[in-house]
Design a protein that fits this description.
single chain; 8-stranded mixed β-sheet; 33% helix; 6 helices; Aminopeptidase; alpha+beta; 190 residues; binds coenzyme A
């Protein structure tokens, strides 16, 4: 991708937000890109996750320093994060992690979570549609998603939206409770 094309894509991404969309039950949520001003709301969102789910966070987003680093990646163009907001409350987030300078520069990795009380209403599906749109705008060719083999909701979700199982890496991750887990890598070609 040429720098000009990359710049056009980034400008198109900025121009797409904010947008208000309706969930299947009629409730409206606002979709917009995360900025530094969202740190407190994102920390509140992280603390709304169930304690057993916090074990499975790849990085602990309940820690202010971790969210600060996340904002740094947003500001330096390595991460795009779309927030789904119900008023001022973060209902869910989806991030596209990518690195234009490595030999995996055609890939984007999705990370997403939805607050427990907003689940099964289509929030994750909306967010992933946005991440796919952004990935195409940035000329990426493939999305990847990583989850442990015991995250069954995530597996059902990604299968449902067209990802396929690519590999299982045994004992590859250690959750916050110190247990090794098997990591599933799923992909979707764009
Ligand atoms: C996985 C997760 C993001 C799904 O969020 P969600 O907003 O509830 O998902 P949606 O409502 O958009 O679901 C879309 C489809 O995915 C599937 N799905 C979602 N949650 C499911 C579950 N718990 N069990 C089985 N299928 C599920 C269903 O097919 C669903 O369609 P349906 O409701 O019409 O049956 C959410 O459960 C979550 O945040 N989990 C913890 C974090 C995580 O595992 N993240 C993924 C790893 S990066």
């Amino acid at each position: 991708m040429s720098p000009e094309t990359a710049g056009d894509g980034a400008a198109a991404v900025q121009a797409r937000y904010p947008r208000t969309v309706a969930l299947a039950d009629g409730r409206k949520v606002t979709l917009r890109l995360m900025t530094r001003d969202d740190v407190e709301a994102v920390l509140a969102f992280a603390s709304s996750l169930d304690p057993d789910e916090l074990l499975y966070l790849r990085v602990n987003i309940t820690e202010p320093g971790v969210v600060e680093r996340w904002v740094h990646y947003i500001e330096t163009g390595r991460t795009e994060t779309v927030l789904a907001l119900d008023g001022d409350t973060v209902a869910g987030e989806a991030s596209l992690l990518h690195n234009q300078t490595s030999w995996t520069r055609h890939l984007g990795e999705i990370r997403l979570q939805v607050a427990p009380r907003y689940r099964r209403r289509g929030v994750a599906r909306l967010l992933v549609d946005e991440v796919e749109w952004i990935a195409r705008a940035l000329s990426l060719r493939m999305l990847t998603a990583r989850m442990t083999l015991d995250q069954t909701a995530a597996q059902s979700f990604f299968r449902r939206i067209g990802f396929q199982r690519e590999a299982v890496l045994w004992d590859y991750v250690m959750t916050a409770d110190g247990k090794m887990r098997n990591l599933l890598v799923a992909t979707k070609r764009l």
